[in-house]
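#lab-general

N.A. 3:47 PM
ok so I finally got the sequence cleaned up, no stray characters, all 754 residues accounted for. can someone with queue access submit it? mine expired

B.Y. 3:52 PM
send it over

N.A. 3:53 PM
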Amino acid sequence: MKRRNIAVLLAAVLTFGSAGSVFAEEPADTAAAEAEEQTETEAGAGDTEGAKGQIVIYHTNDSHGYLSGSDSVVGIDQVAGLKNADPESILVDAGDATQGLPLASLTQGSDVIELMNLAGYDLMTAGNHEFDFGTEQFLYNASLAEFPVLAANVYRDGSPLLAGVPEGNNGCHTVIERNGIRIGFFGLTTVQTATATNPEGIRGLEFQDEVETAKKEIDELEAAGADVIIAVCHLGDADAPCTSEELAGALTGDYQDKVDVIIDGHSHTVENEEVNGITIVQTGCNMAAVGKLTLDVSGEDVTAAEELLTAADLAEAGVQADPEVTAKLAEIEASQAELLEEELGQIGTTLWAGWIGNIAPVRLEETNYGNFAADALKSAAESFQSSAGGDMPVVAVENGGGIREAVYNGTVTKGDLIATFPFSNTLYMKVVTPQILYQAMEVSGSSLDGQDPETGMMLQQSISGGFLQISGFRVVFNPDAEQGNRVTSITLDGQSEPLDRNDTSTQILMVSNNYIMNGGNSYTMLGSLPKYGEAGGELEAIESYLQQCLADGTMERYAGTQGRILMRGNAYQGGTYTVTLRIQDESGSPLAGQALSYRVDGGERVNGVTDAEGLLKIELTEGAHGIRLADSQQEVYVSNYSGLGLQEDALREFPALTFLADGSCDPVPEPTEEPTPEPTEPTQEPTGTPAVTQQPTGTETTVTKSPSRNSQTTVKPAATGDMGCGSAAVLLPAALAGILLLAVIRKRHAGFRS
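B.Y. 4:20 PM
back already:
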């Protein structure tokens, strides 16, 4: 086998220069018919030593229903436009295309496949979320595809699952010829799928080892005469039994230099690196960009150059959206619009979930949407138990990976809920013991990996969709402890003493979605338990609970988090932390020295002033908060546990809020104080309350919550020099009969909702 040398060309800035056209140049000596030919049948090896030319491969991954174009999303009609402008290019997808936003989930992926057909996709690899609707729905979707759907390591009854679906597909690999060059592709799906989708829906499937499968596919593609071999994988670069980097590193010995490129997905990250001579690329997620991989083949040498093309890049390059795809997309969206736009009510605070930048807090810490969702499930289980005459304490858990999108303050629609809960899950109830509950929470905390002793920030670089949001109990984690010993305590609501982790007799009714209850995300201790009953559909329970809370006025309890999940490392003791917000004008320029007012968790307005760099600093109690400027609707998420608002690094930026010129962000006018009369010499002993002396307000304020449900916001002036923020004593001259007058500086209080 010939040796392939891979050169990775990393561009610091996306350009469209000489090699910079979005489109590959078409070699003059290539016949059009030959260029468009796709060979998907096995063929004998030919003389490949003379293979020479350039190939462009456009690639997508983890689109999750983000198919309608915008300033930040590359529309699938624009992807089709790329393919139209460069007919000899190849278009591939690395999985998780058929689940996510309502556009994908309402038809369980079938509309997405139809759009991919129109866009001209040449192949895709199945991601773990392709199986979310069950094996049979996945196979139905694959049968609709006019291109091979690959998953070489997924077997059923001893054969590749996708063999013959669609007709002519071997389910493992395909060979496409362009410019006289035969490019062999094989697909790999993470073995993590066995626990990263609903286990009940994939019964009977076998997910075989990725490395051993890759070696088998390499052998077969070599026999088929492939000049270039590319693995289209749904593995990711973190949190998987076999990452793309590990796959590349394992291809040594007889398999060294046999694979030229890995086109990756699953981890929602941007990859562009070389490992063991193999170029690995990934575009991130949600169609923020399309990858353009350019291969130059010259005999035994293959060089690979990767660019990321955003919506702005395509607009600048003049890429025209495909009108047929645009029309079909509009048709699908119109057919769904009436259902999705149904208004359910108004909420006064954002329910936080999904990804915020590069962080998914709901997979790491308690969020208000996590509280809401878990409470909804608990309410459904309580209704079931009440009708059945049971009296067990009820707890609910919801995996953070199952709460996909935030719902922003304002109007809530049915589409908002569908986007958040797209999986069509059912609520299962099972009877657990304290011992089992401790075991489950240990799995929930398995991705925790240390805590900063000063700020409480989680130090791990990875997060898990299996992190549980909870209702009916409180849990304390020690992120610094060894895995399996991170749960410090679990206490049921209404009780003061923690549960005994060795208690195997006390019965507790647990409710969650069928994914978790069937053992998904490694909750095998739950999967092995008998089912107590079903409490209806997850989405239906969420909607019903929302309407109940709107009707009885209790939505305000979800304005902030409630201290259900506490992180207490070996040194961190809890307390306050300071967040930093960027305040900008409507043009995006920072506002230095800007007086304004803001709300924490929808509470009362608090005045503040930005510093010389346009930064506003606010001291908060530990945990997550939503902050907005006064009466504006925009809101940002901050938390010391996830570090959002706490620091800037490779994963985080300080949240930004825009100061609106309409007066909605202006400071609250200070109350007018009555003038103090001139003191007169007392004729008798003074009685009553001493006068109040106020300190000047600084630019930094402290917002704390009292333990009560109707908590208060306490605003304290920043300390200056040796002067504290407590009481001040004023000693009058001894000439005034030795009378000591005490002036007490009272703290100002403004209430806000917890």
